[in-house]
Amino acid sequence: MMSDFDVCVIGSGAGGGPVAMTLAEAGYSVVVLEKGPWFTEQDFTKDEIGETRRHRFTARLHDEPQTVELREDDGWAAYPTWETGWDFWNGAMVGGSSNLMSGFFHRLKPDDFRQRSVYGPLEGADVSDWPISYDDLEPYYDKVEKVVGISGRVVAHPQADRRSSPDFPYPPTGEHPLAGWIDEVGHAMGLHPFPVPRAILPYAVGARSGCSYSGFCGSYGCTTGAKGSSRAALLPRALATGRCEVRPHAMARRILSDSQGRATHVEFHDREGQIHLLSARIFVVACQAIETARLLLMSTGPRHPTGLANGSGLVGRNLLFSTVGLGDGDLLYKNFSSERAAALRSSAPFINRAFQDWYVIDDPEHGPRRKGGTIDFLFLHPNPIALARWFALSSADRLVWGAPLQRALEQAFRGGRHLLFEAFADWQPSTDSRMTLDPSIKDKWGLPVARVRIGKHPRNRETGDYLVARGREILERLGAENIGTVSRGSPSTNLVAGTCRFGTDPQRSVLDPDCRAHEVENLFVTDGSFMPTGGSVPYTWTLYANAFRVADRIVAQLGGVRR
Amino acid sequence: MARSMDSQDASPGSHLDRRTVLASSGVGFLGLALLSGLGLPGCTRLLRLEGVVPTSPDASPRSLTLQEWRTLAAAQEHFLPSTQDAPGASDVNGIGYLDAALAHPDLDPADVAAVKNGAGALDRVARDMDAPDFAALSESRREEALRQLEQDDEGDTWLRLVLTFTLEALLGDPVYGGNPDGVGWRWLEHSPGFPRPTRPYTGNHG
Q1: CB distance from B6 to chain A under 8 Å?
Q2: Reported ipTM
């Protein structure tokens, strides 16, 4: 029986876009089901209220809750996300959360693919090596630079990546003078600052315009097309073949499987709640790690009683985030010469400097040699309501209002610049870090919601603490005042991975090295769910690269490129 | 000084209506110019609006009773007072913005209820202080009443919600009814990101 399509891709973000593009260009028919709406550049503005303080891009928590399990003294307690004030919805729309990312792109390094072999096991964590190496993924990291559009400048430093292309295809976007100051201070400290690659075009390429330097990248859709979202960079190529259909407002509820255990159909509903079925030869799931696992767990079948591809019981386990560590300080105009203060006042938004001097922590005072992480410097996001709220609501002492609030805001906005650093460290995989289907809470369509257990390993926070202390030293040398750091080992809600890790052993992994489900030959997962370890950089470049790699495997499985 | 505003959002007590009130009270064009910060070098001199602040809207509010309106407007003015140096809640249509915002379909209904109920709770605190309601209290007694509310979880939640909405009125895009002509941005020398919205997001998901 003929399938409706050769390939059905569920999720149109960084995991789905590469597959849609590759398969359509290889001559196969593709349908992409996207839960959210289809926005274009014309729909995006820098509207802080509409785009970041309401639910234009994310789910309303009473309609689509998740539950969070936190460890308390006597066990685990579950809270619906409408009570917690935080959640894991990162953007439901064509292109997914890749529309809203800031686009700081880093590769993983060779030892990140073999953390268990290199650093050994870690008590209380379930660290495993990847079944592929950096060399397997490198050609795809390179491809993403060209196809998604990564701008940057290669600089030699001790942790620099081995690259097949000598430099990036696009030069870096213009930088604020602080980038140079960070270089000076970093070198004086014996460190190795380097420019951060960005998924941002510095000039027009094809139908995409170059960056307009508005400085509001994170949390906002990009109006010019410069940001390398799956929507702006990849789906247009898929659509141009005439063989790809993108269906917004199409939420997958279940993948159906037959008595042989093969995936046959996806059941999805449209915006009116009408249920539809479509069939495909190959199914690719890329809904971000929590929702991907949720879909598989809901997709029971005759050969999959506990969820599609879940014979190992590992779907939903090994949930990964990134460890959050932050630091910030004020560079007050009054503390600098008039020349330097004038330089600080530049409206150029990009600093783009990072340090990986502590990518490996080899410091006898801190125990055995261990994996460390990355520190990225950037301006505090310019959203004014968010900054004002911080002054009003964040004091440990009491709420701030009236004249004291007004003076604090004047100082904050008019007195200088706010420099931030983000420290990325591995979230250690553990059996306690997982998602399941909530036994009682359902979303507005009657489907069980994701229940997310936040299992933190103590190593997360230790590494975070080490990195933020290093970042603080740099802020001090830059002349920052009011330096604060946060390191709680808390999860990042926007960087989510794990849940369907890949490996060679079907007892210890959900997916094989090609990200094909061990138990379902025609099912692939191409978002971050495949990662056994997360690494200490944002995931997106790795995710894009792996999705392209898996897309090539799917083409091969279907019989190769056809005309 | 015409400013486009989606007719859906020309709610009672909106910026547009308040300007009408000001004009009819004789403040005149210069007053309005100062209010919106137009044409003033340095642009931090604002007309003090003591006594001109309306204590009730011209037409029925969307989300609030008249008493809630009165109490919340007084609380907002306490959070952001109008002074020579800074625009206050009344300068940025804080209460009109709040009243319209509470009708947004994306808000958690529990938060909307909390804002309304908390206004009543604040009035009860005022009555315990022998005043008819919160707005009737002097500035120092208003401070006392609000700090008292801060002592428990419900009161603390209410304060955070109302502060948040007040700051949205101060610094959000004018298409939402606050921050008229960017007076809040100009006070803080903030350059908004571009492009700016031409209409508010009112809850239609694409």
Answers
A1: no
A2: 0.94
